[in-house]
From TrEMBL:
PANTHER family: MAGNESIUM-CHELATASE SUBUNIT CHLD, MOXR FAMILY PROTEIN. Residues 33-195 form the AAA+ ATPase domain. Pfam families: AAA_5. InterPro entries: AAA+_ATPase, ATPase_dyneun-rel_AAA, CbbQ/NirQ/NorQ/GpvN, P-loop_NTPase. This is MoxR family ATPase.
Amino acid sequence: MTPGPRELAAALEGEGYFADEGLCTAVHLALRLGRPLLLEGEPGVGKTEVASVLSRITGLELIRLQCFEGLDSGQALYEWDHPKQLLHVRVAESRGEDPGDLYREEFLLRRPLLRAVRAEQGAVLLIDEIDRADNEFEAFLLEFLGDHQITIPELGTVRAGTPPIVVLTSNRTRELHDALKRRCLYHWIAFPEPGRERAILRATVPGLEERAADGLVRAVQRVRRLPLLKRPGIAESVEWARGAMALAEGGEPWPLALRKALGLLIKDEEDTRLLLGHAEDVFSDA
């Protein structure tokens, strides 16, 4: 039975993932309806981690397809093992035998999508950063996303006995096609509100004092309101907290430790200069 949003929130929190009501509802509906879940949001807000946590909660294998420019169907769906086919032919010829059909299961290389379809117990399939793939690649996904099946010309249509849980992520570097979006349940993951970010820090940075966490969260929230080229996500705020804490343990005062560890929060020279120009406001009560 699919857990409800509240039960799902508790299960996610048990794995160290603090999701808001909107995300919990989206994940619940995707599981209940068997729809792929398309998550968009800025880098570092926890999109990829959703698939990892679902894998741990369900006990299903996590299969990851990392998208990139030039990704083709062979790398994502399946390929034929040509060296193995050639070796088979040579061995058959040396024995004076007919090599037979070279396009059968034993010569098939299962790539992530086919592995997900063939997983007997089901799987969690993460199609990460789909916006980095070429437009043409999306067309290869439509049959799989719509029907949980793959067509292999030499073998026919392969359908999933147990449909996988599919999570797609996008940083929105380009607009995705409507045909792909129609096959998915969509959710935008926003930056966390202060209370949820404090909870994340408490769970991921053991030993961080409550007062220090409050000050850091206030500073991060102010930084995100600046017109930066890349606003820091949750991952960066966690690393910033760890770095500043390490400096504080070495004797640095907390506000100064935060300033010295800025390289863990901001990853662009222009953004660094902009932030330093607003340092007095950002760190006023950090």
